[in-house]
Design a protein that fits this description.
Helix content: 25-40%
Radius of gyration: 18 Å
Strand content: 15-25%
Number of helices: 9
């Protein structure tokens, strides 16, 4: 049997103005979507979403993602523990063992979403929690390298410095990621944020870049600046449902079909502006 990860690659999912929509990040495995995921998936399909990737944020949601993907040939799972779920009381080796077992499933593409998120850390816990997150991140990167396939990164912080800064989630993530060779295993910057310099550095390592509904927000100029940096053959679109609904639906639960609005916005944007492409 051909493994699913060999059937759908990250380059297969690059945004195509004339092609079907592929949502590279939607949480059908989280509430409130999980309760009616078959109905929501049917609605998404009816509006032109061809395939969707369902990432994990914990062991439980990773198992749910695998369960969901096993029922639909055009839904695929990633498994992993979100940085905000990293726990000093959990047995990390046991968690890695369980994720490794899930990665053997034919409906699993790879590891995600994993990374570093210092955004809501209190000053007094920042050092200890950031170190804990890094331990979990490195362990899951090792797992991704062992198994191959996809890797989806979640990286976020309050500050977006333009130069490498120790103790900042973006640059800490970069320092960790660059220690690996990604030439044959591309990875995704899910729901990209950070400084242009950080994104350029990650592109040089081989990153693909995912944009979400917040790209359509009137004040999202910093995201649109990042969009200008991304070569067309590295551009992905996501919903991150149930989060970050596109502008017409702000204040509502983001449902996967809403990616149609993001695709429409991006089509208009790409048609109306000069696209700057640099070769990395």
């Amino acid at each position: 049997m051909i493994h699913m990860s060999q059937q759908l690659t990250i380059p297969d999912c690059v945004f195509n103005q004339d092609g079907p929509i592929i949502d590279t990040h939607a949480h059908y495995n989280l509430e409130p979507l999980y309760a009616d995921w078959p109905g929501l998936w049917a609605k998404a399909q009816s509006l032109g979403i061809a395939k969707t990737v369902v990432p994990g944020t914990s062991l439980e949601s990773s198992r749910r993602g695998v369960e969901i993907a096993s029922h639909e040939e055009n839904l695929f799972a990633l498994v992993g523990v979100h940085p905000s779920e990293a726990s000093a009381s959990a047995d990390l080796s046991s968690v890695i063992s369980e994720l490794s077992k899930l990665l053997e499933n034919d409906h699993v593409l790879g590891v995600g979403e994993v990374g570093l998120d210092y955004f809501r850390l209190k000053p007094e816990e920042r050092e200890s929690q950031s170190q804990l997150q890094q331990v979990w991140f490195k362990a899951q990167l090792d797992l991704a390298r062992q198994h191959g396939g996809w890797l989806a990164l979640h990286v976020r912080d309050q500050q977006t410095p333009s130069i490498p800064t120790k103790g900042n989630a973006y640059w800490d993530a970069y320092e960790i990621v660059k220690k690996y060779d990604w030439s044959s295993q591309p990875f995704i910057l899910h729901c990209v944020s950070g400084s242009p310099e950080y994104v350029k550095a990650m592109l040089e390592l081989g990153a693909y870049v995912g944009f979400d509904g917040n790209l359509t927000y009137p004040k999202a100029d910093s995201l649109r600046e990042l969009l200008q940096l991304v070569p067309r053959d590295r551009l992905l679109i996501e919903t991150d449902a149930p989060y970050l609904p596109p502008q017409p639906y702000r204040g509502q639960t983001c449902e996967p079909w809403m990616i149609v609005e993001t695709a429409k916005w991006l089509n208009n944007y790409l048609s109306d502006t000069k696209w700057y492409i640099e070769i990395y």
